[in-house]
């Protein structure tokens, strides 16, 4: 076999397959998210407002690169008047875009049901995460699996309405 033939079977093949998969999966996810946001807003959270027993809110951040508003449906936990989010991205090796956006600009908008509010978001301290993580996992057990799946420390975010 010559070098060109060997390259076809090299380690370069899996990333190409992953890129092709991402080319298909990412647009489908974007359509699903847009539909989720539309139905949530239309119904005031009565449709697409829960995943099992876990409640869902809409978080709107400002794109750190584009400057455009980006809305993401997320599970949340109430804690002493604040809303707690998990930046898990299903245990992926990188942080979700919404988390990177709020690190760049912590001013966000949250919609819980039909109520929209301006808010500020921040990463929970180590102590806060230690206190909140068991409650988050009790609400949505997959969070524990997501943390096992990745080497990054999954951030917990505290959103305080202003």
CATH class: Mainly Beta
In angstroms, what separates the terminal alpha carbons? 66 Å
Number of domains: 1
How helix-rich are the residues, as a percent range? 40-55%
- Envelope shape: globular
**Please, how many helices?**
5
Give the radius of gyration: 18 Å
Q: How much of the polypeptide forms β-strand, as a percent range?
A: 25-35%
Give the name of the CATH superfamily: Electron Transport, Fmn-binding Protein, Chain A
Q: Helix/strand/pairing class, anyone?
A: alpha+beta
In CATH terms, what is the fold-level topology? Answer: Pnp Oxidase, Chain A
CATH-derived architecture:
Roll
Main pleated-sheet profile: 8 strands, antiparallel
Mean pLDDT: 89
By DSSP, the count of extended strands is 8
The residue ranges in which pLDDT falls below 50 over 5 or more consecutive positions are: 1-13
Q: Strand-and-helix sequence, N→C? A: HHEEEEEHEEHHE
Would you give an account of this structure?
The chain has 162 residues and is an alpha+beta fold. The protein has one domain (3-161): Roll (Pnp Oxidase, Chain A), CATH 2.30.110. The protein contains 5 helices and 8 strands; from the N terminus they run ααβββββαββααβ. Strand 6 (107-112) and strand 7 form a beta hairpin. It is globular. The termini are far apart.
